[in-house]
Every structure is written in C-alpha cells, then in structure tokens.
Amino acid sequence: MSRLEIYSPEGLRLDGRRWNELRRFESSINTHPHASDGSSYLEQGNNKIITLVKGPKEPNTRSQLDPNKATLRVTTNITQFSKFERSKSSHKNERRVLEIQTSLVRTFEKAIMLHIYPRTMIDIEVHVLQQDGGIMGSLINGITLALVDAGIAMWEYISGVTVGLYDTTPLLDVNSLEENAMSSVTLGVVGKSEKLSLLLVEDKIPLDRLESVLAIGIAGAHRIRDLMDQELRKHAKKRVKHASSN
Amino acid sequence: MSTSTVVPPRKRLSEGLTVTQKVFIRSRNGGATKIVREHYLRNDIPCLSKACDSCQEIVVPDASNQLPKFVLSELPQPLPNGIGKHYVVLDTNIILLAIDLLENPDCFFDVIVPQIVLDEVRNRSYPVYTRLRTLCRDSDDKKRFIVFHNEFNENTFITRRENETINDRNDRAIRKTCEWYASHLTKHGIKIVLVSNDRLNREAAQRKQENQAYVTKSLFEYVSLLPNAEDIKDLIPNTDSTELSDNKDEEGLSEFVFPEYYSTARIMGGIKNGVLYQGTIQISEYNFLEGSISLPRFSKPVLVVGQKNLNRAFNGDQVVVELLPESEWKAPSSIAMDSEHFDVNDNPDVDESEELTDKTNSIIISDKQRRLLARDAIHAQKSKKVQPTARVVAVTRRSWRQYVGQIAPSSVDLKNGGTQNVFVILMNKCLPKIRIRTRRAVELLDKRIVISVDSWPTTHKYPLGHFVRDLGGIETVEAETEALLLEHDVEYRPFSKKVLECLPKEGHDWKAPADLRDLEANSKDPLLKNRKDLRDRLICSIDPPGCVDIDDALHAKKLPNGNWEVGVHIADVTHFVKPGSAVDAEAASRGTSVYLVDKRIDMLPMLLGTDLCSLKPYVDRYAFSVIWELDDNADIVNVDFTKSVIRSREAFSYEQAQIRIDNLEQKDELTLGMRALLNFSIKLKNKRLAAGALNLASPEVKVHMDSETSDPGEVEIKKLLATNSLVEEFMLLANISVARKIYDAFPQTAMLRRHAAPPATNFEILNEMLQRRKGMSISLESSKALADSLDRCEDPKDPYFNTLVRIMSTRCMMAAQYFYSGAYSYPDFKHYGLAVDIYTHFTSPIRRYCDVVAHRQLAGAIGYEPLSLVHRDKHKMDMICRNINKRHRNAQFAGRASIEYYVGQVMRNNESTESGYVIKVFNNGIVVLVPKFGVEGLIRLENLTNDVNGAEYDEVEFKLSFKDKNSGKIRDVYVFDNVEVQVKSVLDPITSKRKAELLLK
Asked: Which residues form the Exoribonuclease phosphorolytic domain (chain A) (predicted)?
C-alpha cells in the first residue's frame, strides 16, 4: 500500500492543491480545421487530449443510418505513450476502452439535438496524448468543445470532472496518484444546472458520503463550464474580427 | 542521476497559485522511467506563529471548514550566547536519530518540521514518521510542533540545479525555509535555529549567509545550550558518527569484527535468483546464540547458529540469510545458554576479540552450487537429524524499540563520577547486552531503566544504545509492573483529554430513557426507536467475583409452544464509542484490556467500562441482544439480533450462581431460568465435544492478594464450576451466531477469528516422547481424533499425566488469530479448537476491540445504523486485525509475566519441596514444570551433579544420566518423569531478576 500523504492534516494534497481546487485547465478550439469539422485541444492538469468531430455526414454503412436522428459514434485512441510506462498493447479493443466509448455516447446522446440531423452520422475521434488521472472527465470536456466548434446544435454544455473520496474528505479533480489511492466518482454535469448526464461509479463509495462528493463535483463542473465558455467566447471574438476584416 | 536540467516553467494560474512540473527519473526493475508530475505553489501557507500578524490574513479553511491553528508561541524559550528567543528547525537526520528526545517533555519546544524533512523521514522510517505526526497533532500547548509545507510555498520552493544531488537539493530547501522564517520573523525578534548533525549542511548554511540570519547547531551543541542540558545529555543517542567525543570512541573498537552486510543490489539479486532468503528471525528462548527462520521453501525452520552467523540480528528482525555449506549443518543445539551468563566479564570499554571459527568466509560458493545446496537442505530437513544452517547477510528491517533492563554491576566503575560506558542487561533473554554511555552509572545501579538501541557497527561486539529514563528500584512493585508493561508494549498512560471529551457529558448520571417512545429522547437519539425494550425479561449476569466491567448477561424464558427463549445481552459499547472519535482511535490502538494480578489496564475509560456500558444490576442499560428460540435439544429454531434496553436483576459470582441453582428450595422464576440455562449449556457442551472441540489445558494459577497489605498471599490453581461453563457455552453460541450473520452481510470485511489446524511437524517431538516413554501417540487427523487421542493419554498411576500432555499439546498448537473474511477462503475460517466452521468475538466489547468491530458490523447487518467506512475497507480492516492480534498476544504475555512475578514473591517467603514433571531434556540440563505454582524452570547439569563430564545424554530415549550430587549414585532422568524438586525463589545476581530456582531432590 502506498504510504503517501494523500491529504495532509494541514489540508494539502500531494501536488499542493487544496481539496476544492481544480487542476490547471487550458483549452483551445479549432485546432485542426483541415482534418475535421470541429476540433479542440485540452490540457487538464497533465491530461492532454485532442478531439476531432466529423459530421454530420453521410454514414459509412447502412446500418448506421437512422431515419429519425443522427447516429453518434465515439472512437477513443489512448496512445501507447500516454502513461509513464509505455504500454505494449494499443488499447484498441480493450473492454475498458469500449466501455468508455459507450458511456461517452450515452452522455452526449442526450445533450446533442440529434433529431435535427436525421439520416446522418456524427463521428467523434479522441486522441489521448498524455494521461494523469480523471481521464473520463477530460474526455467529456474535450468533446463538448469540439462539438461546439463543429457547430452541432446542443442543449447545453456538458462538463466532466472526477471527484475522489479520501476517508471523509472529497477531493476535486483527482490526478493519477490520488485516483489509484481511493474510490472516485465521475460526473458529467449539464450546463449550470444540477442535472447529471453521467454518473460513473466504478468503486465502492459509502452512500452517506455521496452527497458531499456530488456537491463539490457539481461546483467544480460549473467552474469548468465557465472556463470553457470563456475560451469559446474568446475564440468567437477572434473569428468575428477576422471575418469582419475580410 | 544527473539530467540536463531544464528548469520547468512556472505558470501563474490565479492570484497566489502557480503551477510547475516536477520532473524526476525513477528506476525500477532495471528500467528508467521519467516521471512528470504537476506541482502547485501557493502563497496561502501560514508560518503558524502566534507572533505573526500577516499570516492570519492569508489562511483558508480546509474541507471541514476549519481554519489552521496557530501553534508556535509568541514567547518561545530563550537561549544564551546572544541567540535569544528561538524556534527550532529540524533536519531529517535529527528526527531519525533522536525521535525519543524530541518526544521528551523537557526539551524541544516550538519546533518547525519542513515538509521536505517529513517526506524524507517517511521514506526512511514509517514508524518514526507516525510518531512525528502524532507529536505534531497532540502537542498543541506544551511542545508546539508544526509542519511547514515549504515545497508548496512559492517563497520557499526551489528547483534542483544542474549536477546537484537530490540530497543537496533537499538540504538547500531546508536552509531556504530557515532563511524565509528568519526574515519573516525578524521584526518579532524570534531567531531560527537549524539543528542538524550533517556537517556539510551546517557549513553550507554558514558559508551562505555572512549576516547570520539564522543559527545552525548540531544536536549536541544545541542541547548544551539548554538550561537543563545536564539532564538531557544522557538521552542523546549514541552512534559512532555523532561527534559526541572527538576521540571517536577509540576504546570501543576492537579486533572483533562482524561481517559487513551485503549491498542492496546484491540482496535483491540474490533473493530473485533464489540463493538468498528473507524472513523473520526468532532467537531461541533457551539459547541466545541460536536463531531460526521459517522460510516458505523449507518445511522446517532454518537454523542460524553462533554470534558471527547471527551477525547483529535482533530477535524479530527481518533478515536476509544465505545457506552455509553442508559441512556446517548442525542439529539444533541441546545446550541452554543465556546472554546474561555469557561473557559476564566482558569489559564495556575494551571489547575483547572472540575466537570464532570463520571458515565460512574463506569458502567461495557459486550461485549454481548454492541452488544445489538448497535442494540438499530441503532433503536433509525431511530425513536427517542434521539441520541446514544459514548466516545472516543483511537486516532489512530492525525490530528495535525501547527495552527495559538494568546496568550490569560488574561493568560499572564505582569511582568514576564522569561519563562511562556500561552494559545494560535486558529483561528479554533473547537479546544481547547493550552498551550505553552515561554519567549516572553509579546512581542507576539497582534500578530498572529504559534504554533505546541506536546502532550496531560492525566493529562492536555489542550494540550501542542510550539511556531513556529510570523506572525505579529493582523489585519494587511499581517499577516491575511498569517494566513488564513496557516490555510487552502495553499502553498504560492515562487517557488523554481528547479521549475523555468524547464521553457523554452527563458522566455517571447518564441514564437510559425511561420510555423509548419519549419524544425528547428520540429527538436527541434518532436511533432510539429501533431499540427493543427488554426490561421485562428476568436477566442476570454471572462473572468472577469482584468483576466491575460486566460485559454480558443472560436470560431464559419458557415460550407458550414449549420451546425456550434464551437471550444473551452484551454491553452496548458502540452506542458510546462512535467510529472515528478519539476514544475509538485510542481503543483501536490499545486493542484489549490487560489484566495483571494487581492491576487492570483498561481499553476504554473507566466511566464507560465500569459504569455506563457495564451491565450492572438494578439499573437500565443499553445492550446488544442475541435472542434464540431453542428447542429441548438445545437446537436453534430461530435467532434474532437487536439493540435493546435491559435491566439486570442480579449480578452473581460463579459460586453464588452455583449455590442458587443447587438450592432446590429456590423456585422463583429467575432461578428456574438459570437452571434451564445450565441444562442447555450442558447439552451444548456435549454437542460441541462430540463435534471434536478440544479440551486443552494450561498451567494457570491465581494469586490471592492480602486485602489489606495487598501482599501476595497464596497461589491457587484455577477451579472451574459448572456455572463457568454455563456462561462460556452461551458466549460461544452467541459468537458463532453473530459470526454467521456478519459474514453474510459483509462477505469481504467481516471481523472473524480463526484457529488453524496445527501442522504435524509441531507434534513430532511430543509424539516421539510419548511413543518412546509411554507407548502412546496423538493423532492429528482431525480435531475429533486429536481430542479422542488426548483422552486416551491416561496414566492410571498418575492422574496429572493427562493434564500434562494437554499442557504440552497446547504449546504445539497454532495461535488463534483475528482476520477479516476477505483474507481467507471459507474453508480456512475454521476454528480448530472449538470445532466450528466460523467464529468471532462479540461478547466482550468492553475489553476487546474485535468485539467493538463485530458490534458495529452486526448493527450494520441488521440495519440499525450504516456501517462506518473503516470497517468496510479491506485494507483498514487488515490494519485493525494486525494490531489487535499483536495486542492480544502482548496482553497475554504481560498477564503471564505478572503472575510469574507474584508467584516469585510468594515463593520468596516459603521455600518448599513440590512434585514436578520433566518436560524437556537437554544435553546440559532438564526443564521441570511444577503444577502447583505453574512455574517451570531449567535445572542445569552443574546443579545436578558434581561430575559434569560424566553425564550422558541420550537423545533417542530422552534421557540424561548423571551421578547424583547427594547420593553419588548414577541417576537416570527421563522426560515425563515425576520428580521431587525443591522450589525457591532467588534473585539472579547478574540480571537482578527474581525467578524460581528448582533443585532436584
């Protein structure tokens, strides 16, 4: 068992954050304008993620065609060099990765107005360049940004964050060291509301503590939403200026 | 590990929060990995000094909305030599070296521990880290220790320079912290003193700053500055590297040199290749120069014989060993040897060199040959008498703690008033003498003292230690009691203020609510409505006379359908002891109450243990009840668990209860219930024995104390009444029922108790003795077979023989242990001694922590209240189990040692001749057990005969023949022989330990 001081009596975590602080959150959109319809690059702590959205476009196969709404597809590429130790497998058809993909599809099906794009497909490609815990939350944030960039109609932002529970203290936005040491919950929060489009609980967590965990998670997700919003508005201003000067 | 240092960029995130990257290289399994971690720097880390006003404004609350407490005093202790008021900053080496000194209440006030130091301490020694953390947590007003997170503070964080080693970088970080503190506090006139034994660090500090913003001192220099320096100097640890004396302890060196330990790399490689083995060394009780190690590859423990081969290992150390060549394999020695009588005349100042054969070093064996050797060794263990031997090549973990002992008078120079080296002989026979330096040698003669071991350099024949404190004169009750508590690591200090604050405010006036539906009471305790009112049941308790902590009470009631309702009610400790509270933490760490002859060390504070939880008669008490419906055969029809309120009608002693049951005049309902309970208990016992439960024995005695003078009076062998077994049977039944229930509810973390079947090898010697001497044998096929074969071991001429065999087989058994259910698979849950498939301890929560956990789990299982996380987490349960197993064992040993001491005191006054039994025969003596006092002792050959060389030892027949001292005739003594021995108590002149001395008549 690790003998790290996950949360010191003085109230500091392994990396120097306090319990309710997010990691460094930096994002940019429209990073790959030629390769996709919408793209984003996100750094959340040491998670580094490129997201590309292609679509709405004609489906590749007939099976992917739905006459009533668009089909959503998420492919995740977790690179072999994303962790400290280079992994041997390509992670392609791993159960864990497939599971991540399914939960991402479910999360965004409710947020995107799929019904206005019938008979099309929206293809989301995620490349994880580096990971350092709480990867699921970062994936959600990256996809939200890229979808907005692609101009796909959504009801609201979805912002994701992982919250750990260390003894009785909830810790916001866990990194990999913390994630390995305790049970954690990943939330996908709809806009500024308290609605969840995703609640991923893979470890045991006591029911009586869940409330405080969710509370800090939702607050953190709202903060992430604001950060994403800022970035988008900044980008939009630049685009508008660019367009008007032409 | 030099990297081309690229200084990681710092990036400002918001006001007061900056992020940078920590980059380092970790090598593991031969590969190197570059690790990059985020590292956040902040400006809201306070200095925690009461004098400072600027830090008050920057603090932020933590997750439970508490602001940090400012601890360091505004008026710290002043020092002479122009230093004045000061705070101390500690270096890592000081903490690792002198944690005892830091804990001393008379020195080290207002201490700052930089985070980097804390980290280094944690990596080097986790126990020291925990002690330091406790010190920081509990030393609010008196000692005032704080941790300063220098690594997260943007003012004190430094990046590693090119070509700088990590140690140099950390030393620089400590100095940076000192600088920051010094400049931060200059306006308040408080100086910073950096205490470090690292000369380079001190020099660097002096070089760096000409203006002397802060002072650096070595531990010795710092202590010399204190007003009470003279008292404290003795407590400074004794290592060769300290600059205590500049002449470098020349007297201590000698030609005697232990082999150096292997390097870590060689050990890792060796263990991987299978040529070195790691295990815990156990020093023989009878011979301190012989140890054994149980290794999974070998069916029997591997021997380590001789001082050189033991190579400075202490009893209980985790060591790495290497097999010796076949020519040096030996049979386990049949010689008894104590450290106290060995080399008595060694001079602590001049260690003479020892003539030990040192062939091992000259023989060089390749790895391949070693592996062949291992195969031979395993083979030899199975077939031959000769055992493979090994030698220690490294000690991976020391078991060093504080030890109790006394100064060997022969090593003291009475005329020398100054500092001198003396030997301390420890109470534990398995350990060597310790060399300490003290000024107070003469004063400390004839005192029990506590010492701590610091180091054992290769050039010293004996380990070096230092004096910690003195307990009082030898043979005084206080000193002996404290010594034995310390020796068995029993926490006996009074409960701290924080613990007492957790108790109910009403104190002794606390009352259970008269009506459980009372609204006011319900609003205070929302769980009250789940309690059942059982105050109408006729409940009574049966305990030993004078018992004040009554854990359990019973009742029986005839049901209309002809069955009986039988209830066992256990004190509801968990109502008062909530998980996570200070009293819970204290109880968990104590693990059990300890019962000494004249004293009880409680696990819970008196208020709970003897009043509020104790199921005293005539008052309402909360209880946890197990209620069965039993049919006439004592088969369980139904079982129910509930929290309840009860009122005990009477508290009986075993004898009173027996009298009441036997008195046929008594026909009241309570007595009828008790008779029914007795009947059921007999049926239950028969069932249990039929299933193969063992009836083992131990030579337990009880010491009667004179009630007025509290001098020990007489020794009595414990008697058992039918009522003893009445209570016991129902407790067993309750424990089993509860075990099933909590295992059902928490299959991974239920707190259980198991007793493994003994391996056949344990019984080999006993069986051989029985076979040879009596033509009997013990079968180990099953517990039933064992129980039956024990019953058959009868000697018609000697009724005690059966008990003797039982005592001896008890010693061959495995110890029962607590565990959490995830640790073993179901078939291994078995309790061998009781012959049940699953068992736990539930019935004595006042005196055992296991029961407290079982109570909480049962409460969770019946939905009374949700179970705390701590008891749902495998890792935490593992920690709890480990601790309570250790505490339980220590408590047993302490109890036995206490009885042994008092028996010694009784025998001191009356010398007598008693009958005893030979239980072991050695080459140079016999071990005799005297049932009347429950003592056993070694009778040395020298005391048996005048002609030591004429004695013959026959190991096949377990016989020692010698020429009798008194009659002059040849006498044969076999194992199991009944002999008359003269018992007297003598004070050993060297160890000043009183023990029974036996002499053959």
From this structure: 21-152, 157-219
